[in-house]
Amino acid sequence: MSAGNVEVAAPRMRHQGPPAGVLAVVYTVLFLIGLWPVMLGGKPSFPAPWESASTMAVFFATRAHAVQVCVFFQFGAMVVLGIFTASVVNQMRFLGVRAAGVNIALFGGLGTVFDGFAAAFAGWAMIQGGVAQIPGLTPVFYNLSFAAGGPGFSVPMGLLMLGISIPAMFMKLLPKWVTVLGMVLGVCGELSWLTFLFPHAVFLIPLTRFPGMVWMIAAGFLLPRTVKRQPVAGSW
Question: What is the DSSP annotation of 52-72?
């Protein structure tokens, strides 16, 4: 009896890791809950960077509990964002992406997390006893918090979105609208660097942050979690 080669059907392998889409939703919920008490949960509301030192001191002295709740939830959101970053980068590698973009995405995502931690720590420091009563100290912590949580957030976040979207576009791993959205928002994130020189560019920060949540959720759920092995030859 002669032997012949038979092509064996390629099995599908599933990525082992937390679902990125679920992580993106959890991150979004935690971040928005953290914003509620300081932006919409009472008066005065969170001061803008161009407001006076006295306005900042009054806010952090009178709304300390709101800031505490904000820091709690946003610190937690950064932890989830770090897990999302590690998971989605690992998933891209699992799908066969060998481009430098995934390493850029990892750098961007972790940079966003560490800057978010710094912003939370500075916010926590501002509500500690006696800080608001020391002239000039509140603006120092506020500006540190704004730098870390503003352009310090949006610039590396832009790298995360670009690092995932560009390889995913070339390899057709995500729908075109997701990759285009990620690239547009990523460019906005990089341009938010201009905020350090031109304060009017501050609008680029929320433009990166909030639509970026939509991108994260879409990319997290739509990025494939399974891949076929190369077909192997069998014989009998």
Answer: -HHHHHHHHHH-HHHHHHHHH
- Cα 220 to Cα 148, 161, 164, 178: the distances in Å are 25, 12, 11, 10
Quickly tell me which residue has 């576009």 as its tokens: 169
> The pTM is what?
0.87
**Which class for 236: exposed (0-12), middle (13-18), buried (19 or more C-beta within 10 A)?**
exposed
Closest C-alpha among 89, 90, 85, 154 to residue 119:
154
What does the alpha-carbon distance between residue 85 and residue 71 come to, in Å, rounded to a whole number? Answer: 21
Q: C-alpha angle with apex 226: 77 to 176, nearest 5 degrees?
A: 70
Note whether 120 and 75 are within 8 A (CB). Answer: yes
Residues 142-190 have pLDDT tens digits of 899 999 999 999 999 999 999 999 999 999 999 999 999 999 999 999 9
